[in-house]
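Obj.: predict assembly geometry.
Materials: sequence records (below).
Method: joint structure prediction, all chains together.
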Amino acid sequence: MSRPQVLVAMSGGVDSSVAAALAVQAGWDVTGVHLKLADTPAHLQVQGKGCCTLADADDARRVADSLGIPFYVWDMVEQFQQAVVDDFAAGYAGGRTPNPCARCNERVKVVGLLARARALGFDALATGHYARVAGGRLYRAADRAKDQSYVLYMLGPAELDHLRLPLGSLTKPQVRATAARLGLRTAAKPESFDVCFIPDGDTAGWLERRFGRRPGQVVDAAGRVLGGHQGAYRYTVGQRRGLGIATPTPRYVLRVEPAAGRVVVGERAELATAAVELDRATATDGRGLRPGPAKVRLRAHGAEVACQVVPLDDPAQVRLDLEEPVDAVAPGQAGVLYDGDLVLGGGTVAATIPAA
Amino acid sequence: MPYLDYAASAPLRAEALQAMLPFLERPAGNAASQHGPGRAARAAVETAREQVADLVGAAPGEVVFTSGGTEADNLAVKGAVLHRAGPAARHLVCSAVEHHAVLDAAAWADADAGARVALAPVDAVGRVDLGGLAGLLEPGRTALVAVMAANNEVGTGQPVAAAAELAHAAGALLLCDAVQAAGLPGVDMGRHGIDLLALASHKLGGPTGVGALVVRSGAALRPLLHGGGQERGLRSGTLPVAAIAGFGAAAGATIAEREAGGAADLAALRDRLLAALRTVEPGLVVNGRPTGGAASAPPDPPGAPAIPGLPGLLSVRFPGRLAEDLLLLLDRLEVACSAGSACASGAVAPSHVLLAMGRSPAAARETVRFSLGHASTTADVDAAVAAVRQALQVLAPSEAVG
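Observations (raw structure tokens):
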């Protein structure tokens, strides 16, 4: 039997470097590909920060050289810009808190790349994500702290049958140790940042450069004006800092109303959410989310909460009745359903129903 | 492994390797030294200088060795601009399909040396529009006109002699980048009125790291590199004797091939490739107007280019197929060819040449360049065609990534 032909996505970080190395060790016929996702001129790139710098492409190439595998760089700047960066900005402009990593996996890094790999005759795509695939189902990673199943929930059988996640059973320290043992030059590279296209981490500043100032009012639930702001897009549900208002007790952002330019704030107790509605809901088994009990995660590294899955008229939507209230659920974030380690699926939070 | 990427770099010729070895194996002399080893080095350099001069119809004293084609183009563009006293007389006209070594040097002159740069348009096959070029000239102010001999991406030959006449009438020098076209019948300094001609050794089957700018005597340039005053003060630096000897030998071998009618043989091989590719992909579209036969392109307009197209080059579009994908599959099948030019990260960027010819970015991304040369064989061509057939079977048409 011929060896499986596997394309490995190599970002230039330690995780995907080790994924590639393990793919080679597994005896697969491995080809590396680095996705160029940004056109940032080299002299503007922050060394060692963010992703997609020239240094990252060089690191990926040198790791591929040391593994003796062919390596290519694919320009996916346009797809990334449209599907991820523009979508991220539009989310904030619409008062939501998008998850760009989930979006990127859905449109570019995993689903998009896998389609291209399959079109090129590869049997599978391997990535450095921390999650496990077994029997065509998606499971959480052994390393709970690094688990990335949350940003892969949208995968279905068509993808999972052709996805290899070599790091799923390893811990991050084991991955670093493997990289060091193999002499990979990325062994000691720092962790990448949450939003790779905002390397300085200043999301508000990034949005302001994109949208300009859009002054508006900070109000309470009754509509009383408590203060002003420079752009509703700067605020996210649950945010306490930067409201610019003086109140006897702390105030939190309850919701963002970009059309009216209003940021609605209230007491911490008012953040409690009893139920959420997900849209673009998908199931990893491809058969739809089933009604009944499950656990849900509403934040990348948030706690899991027991819930009941309630179908809605639209098959692409479900309501999740939370068994205990969750604070500060932001529309736009992913809601991901679990049964133990098994990822059932998930969707995007479209609406929240307060507890009180 | 079938190698069809001569336009990127040609394999080293046996003659070039033989010419280099003595200077790598023995204690190397400095060609500027007065002792025996120095004289031997100097003799090798001067022999090479004569061979290179012969290749392009120049006098040996007009050959200035450089580190390659890029440096030759930079010396020509920047040296001509800097020779002009002030910004008013620092005007440049380049064809829109020049190599980046010319275009980016001109962009530098524009940004950092007070020069102004105008790009002359090209027609659908990539041939410079002489009327458009004439309209851009500013007599007394234009310092340099750059029109390459034949385009490295699509193979189209350029009306260099006519461009030189226009340049001279405006008081400008004519730079002809002949990096890709050197060795073609007719690439000749005197015949085309060329003032500055750029060459790269490795495109001829010599080593990388060496090239030349041929500077017609009387053409005034400012040097870019200062130091020991080598190369008539135009290019300081100890000469790389072995590399220059290899360059000279490659030039000599190229001349011998030219005299034996090598261009026709190469065109026949290229036409075999094209005919076979058409049977594999009937929708194939040929870009540009490489010379010598079956390439279906519009005929030359009156006043045909004095320099023919590249006989070994074939730029073709596979509609609905990303060149990047085709290249990966061909590489997996051990066939080497190319698509556009690579950016700093190594990704394939849409070719500025194809865009200047009016192609859409999408069409540019579907274009593959095959290029043949001195050691190409029928077997290489047939193996490449078989690989393309296999690759196209893998790729579904129009399957884009969303």
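Conclusions so far: Chain A touches chain B at residues 31, 34, 36, 42, 54, 57, 61, 70, 72-76, 79, 83, 107, 112-113, 115-116, 119-121 (CB under 8 Å).
To do: check interface contacts against the pulldown list.
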